[in-house]
Amino acid sequence: MQKFIYNRPKAKCDFCKATENPHPDFDETIPITKINIGKKRKLTLCINCFFMHKECSEEKGEYFIAYLSKMNNLSLILDKTSKKKILIHS
Questions:
Q1: Please, which residues have CB within 8 angstroms of residue 33's CB and are 6 or more apart in sequence?
Q2: In sequence order, which residues have a C-beta less than 8 Å from that of residue 15 and are 6 or more positions away?
């Protein structure tokens, strides 16, 4: 079972960018976990994204780490594309 870190200052999910626990009864940072997706690449995932991506990878029949790596690469490409559009339109 994956271990999650609670109450970590400046906790942030690399996928959804959440920093605060969305549950109304908890006034704390979001629970996160760190996952190695390559030799020098680590992702920080909130508990919600972890289980959502875990379920998606299982439904697609893909290894979880390979799925996360692919999703991370796509996210990086989209971030770069959106930043270029902002610069062009500024």
A1: 2, 3, 4, 5, 44, 45, 47, 50
A2: 43, 45, 46, 49, 53, 71, 75
Q: Each residue of 7-60: pLDDT tens digit?
A: 898 999 999 899 888 777 878 889 999 999 988 899 999 999 999 999 999 999
Q: Give residues with Cβ within 8 angstroms of 34, minimum separation 6.
A: 5, 42, 43, 44, 45
Q: Is residue 30 a contact partner of residue 15, using CB atoms and an 8 Å limit?
A: no
Please state, in angstroms and rounded to a whole number, the distance separating the CA atoms of residues 23 and 65.
Answer: 27
d(CA 48, CA 54): 10
86 has pLDDT over 60: no
